[in-house]
């Protein structure tokens, strides 16, 4: 399988909505409106992985730049454009289709987001993750070669800064 990493396009909306819905067990209707806003407001920090053979999106990551260090709930519901003066890159989601997992796609998505954050002058990357994914995120700090990754562990009410 040959895959392509690229920024999102409006035509990706149905596939992105399906992928996000399956990954986070949310209704497609709930997700669609937010995804439209994200695609329109921060397409430069909304990356997708396309299977070149099928043309299908098999993974994505997205998040806005933000002026504050930590992810706030409002970021999931209000889609504001990225601003050059924002110093922190948020990552609101990383999702990969089940049959494409364990192939390095999520790691590559995060690396590519880190490259974008560096080019845009961001000071750190902030994300949340489920406790069961903590083992995956910790080594990413070394791989992403960014100054800091701020990880809020969901349901454990912890904040870890690497």
How does this model look, in words?
- The protein is α+β, with helices and mostly antiparallel strands.
- The chain has one domain (about 5-155): Gcn5-related N-acetyltransferase (GNAT) (Aminopeptidase), CATH 3.40.630.
- The protein has four helices and nine strands, in the order βααβββββαβαββ.
- The chain has helices at about 15-25, 30-40, 105-120, 135-145; strands at about 5, 45-50, 55-60, 65, 90, 95, 125-130, 150-155, 160.
- The strands form two sheets. Strands 4-5-7-8-9 form a five-stranded mixed sheet, covered by helices on one side. A four-stranded antiparallel sheet has the order 1-2-3-6, with helices on both faces.
- Strand 2 and strand 3 form a beta hairpin.
- Helix 1 (about 15-25) packs across helix 2 (about 30-40).
- Residues about 140-150 and about 150-160 have low confidence and may be disordered.
- It comes from Lactobacillus amylolyticus DSM 11664.
- GO terms for molecular function: N-acetyltransferase activity.
- This is Acetyltransferase, GNAT family.
- Keywords: Acyltransferase, Transferase.
Strand element count: 9
Strand order of the largest sheet: 4-5-7-8-9
Looking at CATH, the homologous superfamily is Gcn5-related N-acetyltransferase (GNAT)
**Distance separating the two termini:** 34 Å
Which structural class is indicated by helix and strand composition?
alpha+beta
How many structural domains? 1
CATH topology, which one?
Aminopeptidase
Name the beta content range.
25-35%
Low-confidence stretches: 142-148, 152-162
Mean pLDDT, as a whole number?
Answer: 84
User: What's the CATH class label?
Assistant: Alpha Beta
What order do the SSEs take from the amino end to the carboxyl end, as H and E? Answer: EHHEEEEEHEHEE
Shape: globular
Question: What proportion of the residues is helical, as a percent range?
Answer: 25-40%
Main β-sheet: number of strands, strand sense, barrel status?
A: 5 strands, mixed
Q: What is the overall number of helices?
A: 4
* Architecture (CATH level 2) name: 3-Layer(aba) Sandwich
What Rg do the Cα atoms give? 15 Å
Protein name: Acetyltransferase, GNAT family
Keywords: Acyltransferase, Transferase
Pfam families: Acetyltransf_1
InterPro entries: Acyl_CoA_acyltransferase, GNAT_dom, SNAT-like
């Amino acid at each position: 399988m040959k895959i392509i990493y690229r920024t999102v396009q409006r035509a990706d909306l149905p596939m992105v909505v399906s992928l996000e819905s399956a990954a986070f067990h949310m209704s497609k209707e709930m997700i669609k409106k937010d995804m439209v806003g994200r695609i329109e407001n921060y397409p430069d920090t909304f990356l997708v992985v396309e299977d070149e053979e099928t043309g299908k999106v098999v993974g994505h990551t997205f998040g806005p730049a933000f002026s504050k260090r930590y992810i706030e709930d409002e970021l999931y519901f209000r889609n504001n454009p990225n601003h050059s003066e924002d110093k922190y890159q948020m990552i609101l989601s990383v999702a990969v289709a089940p049959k494409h997992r364990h192939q390095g796609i999520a790691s590559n998505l995060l690396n590519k987001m880190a490259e974008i954050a560096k080019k845009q002058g961001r000071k750190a990357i902030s994300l949340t993750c489920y406790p069961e994914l903590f083992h995956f995120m910790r080594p990413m700090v070394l791989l992403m070669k960014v100054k800091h990754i701020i990880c809020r562990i969901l349901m454990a009410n912890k904040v870890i800064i690497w």
